[in-house]
Amino acid sequence: MTRFLLLTGLSTLAAACSPHGASGLALDGGLPAGGGAIVDNGDGSYTIPMTFTVAPGEERYECRDFANPFGGAEAAIARFESHLSPGAHHLLLFYKPGARDGAPERCSGTELAAGPYGSQRSDDALAYPSGVGAVVPSTSGFRVQAHYLNASTAPLTATVQLRMIVAPPASVRDHAAVLFFTNTNLDIPAGATGAVATKSCTLPFDVNLIQATGHMHRHGVAFFASASASPSETLFDSHAWQDVAPALFEPPVHLAAGTSITFSCTYDNPGPTALGYGDSAQSNEMCIFTAQFYPAPFGGWSCS
Fold this sequence. Notes:
There is one protein chain. The protein is mainly β. It has 2 domains: 5-172, Jelly Rolls (Sandwich); 177-303, Jelly Rolls, CATH 2.60.120. The chain has 1 helix and 24 strands. The chain has one helix at 10-17, and strands at residues 5-6, 39-40, 45-54, 59-66, 75-84, 88-97, 105-106, 117-119, 123-127, 132-136, 140-149, 156-167, 174-175, 177-182, 187-188, 193-202, 207-215, 220-227, 233-238, 247-255, 260-268, 275-276, 288-294, 301-303. Strands 2, 3, 5, 9, 10, 12 and 13 form a 7-stranded mixed beta sheet that branches. Strands 1-20-17-23-14-24 form a 6-stranded mixed beta sheet, with no helix packed on it. Strands 7-4-11-6-8 form a 5-stranded antiparallel beta sheet, with no helix packed on it. The radius of gyration is 19 Å and the shape is globular. Mean pLDDT is 88; it is low at 1-34.
């Protein structure tokens, strides 16, 4: 049984998630990009900004730490909105205990941690169901990771804007978190066509999925994920490796503890060198399945 809604365009996503907050700021550059700290917009929303330069022909991972902006109190995020300037491959937001405001810095694409949000789109948004939120501990700040490729002959100014809309703490009954499943056992032969890498992970607890997506690099030609329900559930199906539209589930997809999620990546490798797991979108590959879920009383869960 297939039970998903795959959004294929920004206009559809905008209609589904209403990526305008109470302030009316749009995701087309209307959010502030500068500053050294998270910006309190004064309307219950907060903007995380990051700007850096990518040299001609460069592939670059950039990270930046941000202190907790919520005045030392626990906070719950009801919705995320993000905008990435051209040249982006992905954005990840991690929790970072004790984080302080820092400058953008080069980092590794294999640097991963628990976090509430990620996107592979120029403009994206995620709204949790009523009563659900991503809870930020009072002791935690954030770390942003952005992956950019500059295929041009001129320097590229990369601008990342991530807006968080906060929910009243009393309104959040269930915590949201992320499933992060990685297949690092990749060996794609030189000259291969239609090479498939498959991995399965078994859920240790019940989940309600509200979003799912897959992540590959430029040799990836297909991503498919399904759950071993009876009959099986298709969770994500895409042929894109960049600007990947997530699957959004309404109502949420309920999967019981013990359910196996199987995800497969298909690759074409016309080059003379075998490909393995790594952070370069040009010369390495990845096969990662992620999903937003609730309830998450113990936080997110990874499988690698």
